[in-house]
């Protein structure tokens, strides 16, 4: 094993080259001992790259250093290698990988975002990052990378338009709390950050999306259910999603579901459901089947709403509730 | 994270994977248990959070988990995993048997030697965090845990923050009032050096039993910390020079002057510290103390709750309040030890999660159980009984039911000498507190971030009522100041003296006192930058009390205010003793002291030593061009000059 002599990197760009070589060797060797030594070297290289990018103290990282590293990174496929091999790295090296990744993502030349452009042509990097959620050891590291990528519309679009987007529920439902929340937060980011792009997508893929989403709302997991119900309210009430909302509130089954949630044992679920239910009632052009359900339940709804969360000080909520009562009364 | 508990167990029903052994604490967030991992026999602490009682965004709770799981340091409590069962979140943490430093302080203060050891270990932990770009933001004795063999660990990352780069800063108002750095309170932008301030406060806490300013209401403390001189150890109390110097390295008001964790590890006080095994005697002492103290026997240890990150302030804190205000932006506020989150200004996108906001209409309220609903269930709402539609998934294997006795017992255990504060606190905020929260008045409140929003926001209403919240950054948060806003109040018709009294108070007295307090009356930022005013906290607070008195009097009975002021002036005029004193001073010194707002331009005019009537009148002519006194009423200056004239009459020698 002679890596140690050879890997005295002269500059940060050399570190990236060396990093690539070592990551490749990680898979080639089967000896635990040499794996460990390669990993140590990888950790060292990542750490020194991170420090080079961070710059000295408070000084801006020299644009030069960033450019050198970035160019070497684009040439060497190291972003993808970092994501794919994240689980093999040591603890600190994983964090350093995130840091390097996210620093590069933020790189800007004028109005151009070279790293974003690079990844836009490498959609597998986005999807590989998402896949890391299946490994609990690195899920929160990769989650940070994913979150940073989702800030940029082209990358968020790659994820949303991919079939892999539909693996989110699996990560949300089958992970422990911390990871589940992180995955949910990134799904939410995908669905709320770039509104017009998302609206176009939801319009075109309405059925597919809501088939998936309804399962989240009906989850047996309290956290999943509460969070997804809340997000549903946010999505529907967003102006950009007007078409999606009108479709959603025309469906009988959706109204039924919300009416049942209004009477969920959890007050938080009830309350989130209220914010979706109100849209059905407030709709000035209720489809007949919706109006019919509401009319059929008119008396019960009036009694129910009059007693609904009366202990709240929330003025807006109380106004909305009064409005709903008035609307239902007129039916 | 080097968890000895296989992550595979994470998906196992936690009630099966762990055996709960004993309850360690109770708080508004839920309970903390000592538990055994069945497969490995490892003892852990499990914090159970009642998610349904929190109307917060659940994902915010995840922030703490994310911080902990990114830490791999022997100076930071370990996080093993988290599960949701029913509506309860279980967070599994390292169990530390020694207790928190605030527990360990109960039998008595620490020696300098012990403090040095603890500080060294803390600095190692902070060095790790700070190099990771993390700020703990809630360093205090209650968040420092000891293992049975004396290892020192930082706990509770409930309000920690992650900086994205070396240069980035935070602005969120967060922490625990007595321990908060001035720049955090000012929301002036701060970084990891805020933790160093809190470390200095914590060192004083360990030396004295209380943090500095403990005699003041926490709401006042928020105002006093940025205004008053940085606390120091009393030189007459026999502290070593090293310790005193260590404190002064930590407690520098300007973060630029403050040492870093790395610097401080080289400090003489720290370098001379001994091994952590010496701390075992603190643990032993506390265990003996607990045995002796009958009130304690039912509370095996409160420390776990701290370690688990939720704290057991429910059992110990009188104020335990984490209140939330909602004016136009998110403000979280807690009192007396309770971490505070204020986000008056979302100044950078790098700022905390709070900005991510819930919809404005989404305050949620406590409920009970999660349920399972089916889309297929009936459309009509039959009789509104929930039974047909919901399955409860509740019932933890162990339902915490013993909390009452525990609360009661710890309530009794007051620490001598702390009651003053508690009384104040109880008096001022009695209705705010829930009975459960009333404790011994000493142990600090832990961050309740995301937990128990409801009670907190209700409690916060009390503060909204006082109108003082918005004034935290400028005039201080206490209701004391609020009455000064008298112009907003409807006034009854006043006679001439009344009007004069009102004007005197508003234009002169309050202005003078604000100047003394170092507040540019309107410019908030300036208020904090005035570094020339740097009095002791007690002096600052005395001035505030006087100011409040005048403000109240001016509102309540302006005529009386007029008489008081005139009588003071008259008293000055007629008292030979006063003249004898004044004669001994230069005019400049006198003016400077009594009238800082005017002093600068008098000095500039050069004739300050002997201002003749003519010179002063000249000054008046120039007044409008003088920025410093632009806002001043001519009447104020006129009255002042008249006062000077009056003195001169009795003082012909000048």
UniProtKB/TrEMBL annotation, chain A:
Q: Which domain of life is it from?
A: Eukaryota
Give the family per the record: Belongs to the Mo25 family.
A GO BP term here is: intracellular signal transduction
A Pfam family cross-referenced in the UniProt record is: Mo25
Taxonomic classification: Eukaryota, Fungi, Dikarya, Basidiomycota, Agaricomycotina
A GO molecular-function term, please? protein serine/threonine kinase activator activity
List the InterPro entries. Answer: ARM-like, ARM-type_fold, Mo25
State the protein's name.
Putative transcriptional repressor
TrEMBL record, chain B:
Q: Which cofactor does it need?
A: Mg(2+)
Q: Which GO terms describe its cellular component?
A: cytoplasm
Species of provenance: Kockovaella imperatae
Quote the catalytic activity from the record: L-threonyl-[protein] + ATP = O-phospho-L-threonyl-[protein] + ADP + H(+); L-seryl-[protein] + ATP = O-phospho-L-seryl-[protein] + ADP + H(+)
Coiled-coil ranges per UniProt: none
The EC number(s) given in the record are 2.7.11.1
Q: Member of which family? A: Belongs to the protein kinase superfamily. STE Ser/Thr protein kinase family. STE20 subfamily.
The UniProt record lists the Protein kinase domain at: 18-270
- Stretches of Polar residues bias are at 370-379
In terms of Gene3D superfamilies, this protein maps to: Transferase(Phosphotransferase) domain 1
One Pfam family linked to the record: Pkinase
PANTHER family linked: SERINE_THREONINE-PROTEIN KINASE SID1, STERILE20-LIKE KINASE, ISOFORM B-RELATED
Q: Which UniProt keywords apply?
A: ATP-binding, Cytoplasm, Kinase, Magnesium, Metal-binding, Nucleotide-binding, Phosphoprotein, Serine/threonine-protein kinase, Transferase
Which portions of the chain have biased composition (kind: Basic and acidic residues)?
Answer: 423-437
Q: What class of enzyme is it?
A: transferase
Instruction: Report the subcellular localization.
Output: Cytoplasm
Question: Compositional bias (Low complexity) at which positions?
Answer: 408-420
> Recorded GO terms, molecular function?
ATP binding; metal ion binding; protein serine/threonine kinase activity
The organism's place on the tree of life at top rank: Eukaryota
Q: What is this protein called?
A: non-specific serine/threonine protein kinase
Spans annotated as Disordered: 365-441, 468-494, 598-625
């Amino acid at each position: 094993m002679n890596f140690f002599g050879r890997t005295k990197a002269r500059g940060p760009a050399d570190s990236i080259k060396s990093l690539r070589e070592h990551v490749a060797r990680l898979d080639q060797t089967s000896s635990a001992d040499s794996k460990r030594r390669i990993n140590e070297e990888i950790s060292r290289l990542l750490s020194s790259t991170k420090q080079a990018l961070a710059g000295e103290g408070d000084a801006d990282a020299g644009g030069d250093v960033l450019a050198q590293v970035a160019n070497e990174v684009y040439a060497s496929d190291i972003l993808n290698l970092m994501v794919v091999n994240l689980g093999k790295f040591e603890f600190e090296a994983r964090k350093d990988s995130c840091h390097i990744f996210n620093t590069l993502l933020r790189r800007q030349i004028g109005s151009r975002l070279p790293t974003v452009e690079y990844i836009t042509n490498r959609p597998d990097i986005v999807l590989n990052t998402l896949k890391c959620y299946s490994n609990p050891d690195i899920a929160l590291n990769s989650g940070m990378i994913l979150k940073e990528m989702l800030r940029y519309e082209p990358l968020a679009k790659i994820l949303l338009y991919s079939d892999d987007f539909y693996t989110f529920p699996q990560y949300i439902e089958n992970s422990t709390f911390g990871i589940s929340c992180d995955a949910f937060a990134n799904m939410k980011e995908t669905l709320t950050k770039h509104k017009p792009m998302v609206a176009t997508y939801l319009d075109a893929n309405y059925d597919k999306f809501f088939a998936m989403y309804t399962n989240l709302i009906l989850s047996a997991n309290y956290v999943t259910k509460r969070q997804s119900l809340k997000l549903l309210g946010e999505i529907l009430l967003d102006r950009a999603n007007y078409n999606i909302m009108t479709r959603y509130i025309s469906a009988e089954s959706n109204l039924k579901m919300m009416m049942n949630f209004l009477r969920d044992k959890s007050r938080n679920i009830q309350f989130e459901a209220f914010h979706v239910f109100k849209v059905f009632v407030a709709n000035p052009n209720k489809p007949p089947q919706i109006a019919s359900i509401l009319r059929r339940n008119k008396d019960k709804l009036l009694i129910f709403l009059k007693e609904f969360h009366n202990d709240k000080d929330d003025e807006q909520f109380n106004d909305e509730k009064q409005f709903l009562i008035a609307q239902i009364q007129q039916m | 994270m080097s968890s000895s508990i296989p992550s595979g167990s994470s998906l196992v029903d936690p009630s099966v994977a762990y055996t709960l052994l004993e309850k360690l604490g109770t708080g508004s967030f839920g309970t903390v248990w000592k538990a055994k991992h069945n497969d490995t026999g490892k003892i852990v602490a499990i914090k159970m959070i009642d998610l349904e009682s929190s109307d917060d965004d659940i994902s915010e709770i995840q922030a703490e988990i994310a911080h902990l799981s990114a830490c791999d340091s022997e100076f930071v409590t370990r996080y093993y995993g988290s599960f949701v069962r029913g509506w309860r979140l279980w967070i599994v943490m390292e169990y530390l048997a020694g207790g928190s430093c605030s527990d360990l302080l109960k039998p008595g203060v620490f020696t300098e030697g012990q403090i040095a050891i603890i500080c060294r270990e803390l600095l190692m932990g902070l060095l790790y965090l700070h190099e990771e770009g993390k700020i703990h933001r809630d360093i205090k004795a209650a968040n420092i845990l000891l293992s049975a063999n004396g290892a020192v660990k930082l706990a509770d990352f409930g309000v920690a923050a992650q900086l994205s780069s070396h240069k980035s800063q935070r602005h969120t108002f967060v922490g625990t009032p007595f321990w908060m750095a001035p720049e955090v309170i000012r929301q002036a932008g701060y970084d990891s050096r805020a933790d160093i301030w809190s470390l200095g406060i914590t060192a004083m806490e360990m030396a004295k039993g209380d943090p500095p300013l403990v005699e003041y209401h926490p709401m006042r403390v928020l105002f006093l910390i940025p205004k008053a001189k940085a606390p120091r150890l009393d030189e007459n109390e026999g502290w070593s020079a090293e310790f005193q110097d260590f404190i002064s390295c930590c407690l520098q008001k300007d973060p630029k002057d403050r040492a870093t964790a790395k610097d401080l590890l080289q400090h003489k006080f720290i370098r001379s510290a001994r091994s952590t095994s010496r701390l075992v005697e603190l643990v032993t002492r506390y265990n003996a103390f607990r045995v002796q103290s009958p009130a304690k026997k039912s509370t095996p240890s409160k420390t776990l709750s701290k370690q688990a990150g939720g704290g057991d302030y429910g059992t110990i804190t009188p104020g335990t309040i984490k209140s939330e205000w909602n004016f136009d932006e998110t403000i979280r506020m807690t009192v007396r030890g309770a971490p505070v989150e204020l986000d008056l200004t979302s100044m950078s996108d790098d700022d905390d999660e709070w900005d991510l906001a819930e919809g404005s209409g989404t305050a949620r309220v406590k409920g009970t159980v999660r349920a399972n609903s089916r889309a297929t269930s009936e459309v009509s709402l039959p009789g509104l009984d929930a039974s047909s539609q919901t399955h409860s998934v509740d019932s933890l294997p162990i339902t915490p039911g013993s909390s009452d006795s525990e609360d009661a017992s710890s309530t009794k255990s007051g620490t001598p000498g702390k009651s003053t504060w508690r009384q104040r606190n109880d008096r001022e905020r009695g209705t705010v507190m829930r009975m459960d929260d009333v404790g011994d008045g000493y142990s600090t409140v832990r961050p309740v971030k995301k937990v128990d929003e409801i009670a907190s926001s209700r409690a916060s209403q009390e503060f909204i009522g006082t109108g003082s919240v918005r004034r935290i950054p400028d005039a201080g948060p206490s209701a004391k100041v609020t009455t000064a806003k008298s112009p907003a109040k409807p006034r009854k018709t006043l006679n001439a003296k009344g009007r004069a009294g009102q004007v005197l108070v508003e234009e002169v007295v309050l202005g003078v006192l604000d100047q003394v307090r170092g507040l540019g009356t309107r410019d908030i930022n300036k208020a904090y930058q005035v570094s020339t005013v740097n009095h002791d906290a007690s002096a600052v607070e005395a001035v505030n009390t006087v100011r409040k008195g005048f403000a109240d009097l001016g509102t309540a009975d302006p005529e009386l205010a007029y008489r008081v002021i005139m009588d003071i002036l008259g008293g000055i005029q007629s008292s030979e003793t006063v003249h004898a004193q004044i004669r001994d001073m230069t005019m400049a010194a006198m003016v400077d002291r009594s009238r800082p707002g005017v002093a600068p331009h008098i000095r500039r005019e050069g004739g300050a030593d002997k201002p003749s009537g003519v010179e002063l009148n000249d000054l008046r002519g120039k007044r409008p061009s003088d920025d410093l006194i632009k806002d001043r009423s001519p009447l104020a200056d006129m009255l002042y000059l008249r006062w000077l004239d009056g003195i001169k009459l009795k003082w012909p020698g000048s």
